[in-house]
Amino acid sequence: MSGLETQEQLKRLTQVDLQGKTAIVTGAASGIGAATARALALSGAAVLATDRNEEGLRQTVEDISASGGRAEFVTADLLEGGAPQAIVDAAVEAFGGVDVVVNVAGIFEARPIEQMDEGAWDRQLTINLRAPFFIARAAVPHMREGGVLIFIASGTAVMPSPLYSAYAASKGGIVSLVRALAAELAPRGIRVNSISPGNTDTPMIGEAMADPVVRKQVEGMTPARRLGTPADIAGAVLFLASDAADFVHGANIAVDGGLTSSWSMVLSKQEWPEVNRT
Ligand SMILES: NC(=O)c1ccc[n+]([C@@H]2O[C@H](COP(=O)([O-])OP(=O)(O)OC[C@H]3O[C@@H](n4cnc5c(N)ncnc54)[C@H](O)[C@@H]3O)[C@@H](O)[C@H]2O)c1
């Protein structure tokens, strides 16, 4: 836009209209990915939902169909080298192209350094960093001008916690990868950005948050005094996928109730909960 916008152009910014677009969403069986897939479909996109959890995927696609949206799914395990290409091929076959990719799938395993063996390191780096890159790489040749790549990073990328070495490395890698790809692809009309959620109420942190003491502690150190919801993150995805974000390239948007922009975690003088310690 030039700065001399018409009323019509400004009006378009008030609506997220993804009619005619195709979106790939990984991790779509659960949590943030499921909410993202549903929100994109409600905005008019045809959604290729993917995950390794077929039961959850079916549920997401059923929810989308029940709301009048269009979705297909492909079951894929991102630990398998051929998965990124297979996912993009499925989207092209189902809907004829790719306009938006949202890399949501992720895992974390908190371990002390002595127990962060090659398996734990490789799983986290493969699912959280390697596969998202190769999905983007497979999708870009199919993207027209106006294509959008969105990666879900984490507040851990900028404010890591003890025991999170592999997870923090993978998410920090995402933030850096996004900047490099944004610089490379912006001249081709493709926007690349990341979102860093804070503690978000999904199965990923469900076990830890089931302890009311831990939950209260986490809520207490978050300036907004609550956990995020998958819809909070999906809202940022919709913004980044829309024309309203037309000049947003290489950004990492924190959606975390203020956690990483304040000293509240430090000031709370609380230990970060040691979850999933194996
Ligand atoms: N929940 C949080 O507090 C939080 C905070 C910061 C960042 N994140 C990030 O948000 C993203 C979504 O997490 P969530 O909170 O919705 O968790 P979730 O556990 O509900 O969803 C993660 C999804 O990824 C899928 N997945 C995991 N390994 C896979 C594999 N090998 N192949 C294919 N799919 C696989 C799972 O099946 C699951 O459906 C992740 O990248 C996570 O790191 C979450």
Describe the structure in your own words.
The chain is an alpha/beta fold. It is built from 10 helices and 7 strands. α6 links the parallel β5 and β6. The site of nicotinamide-adenine-dinucleotide has 28 residues, from α2 and α7.
Separate helix tally: 10
- Calculate Rg over CA atoms: 18 Å
Provide mean pLDDT, rounded: 94
Residue share in helices?
40-55%
The CATH homologous superfamily is named: NAD(P)-binding Rossmann-like Domain
Oligomer: single chain
> Which small molecules are bound?
nicotinamide-adenine-dinucleotide
Elements, N to C (H/E): HEHEHEHEHEHEHHHEH
Number of strands: 7
Strand-residue proportion: 5-15%
Short description:
By secondary structure, this protein is an alpha/beta fold.
Q: Can you lay out the helices and strands and say which pair or pack?
A:
Elements (H helix, E strand, L loop, with lengths): L6 H7 L8 E5 L4 H12 L3 E6 L2 H13 L3 E6 L7 H13 L4 E4 L14 H22 L8 E5 L12 H21 L5 E7 L5 H7 L2 H10 L8 H12 L10 E4 L8 H4 L11
Parallel strand pairs: 1-2, 1-4, 2-3, 4-5, 5-6, 6-7
The chain binds nicotinamide-adenine-dinucleotide.
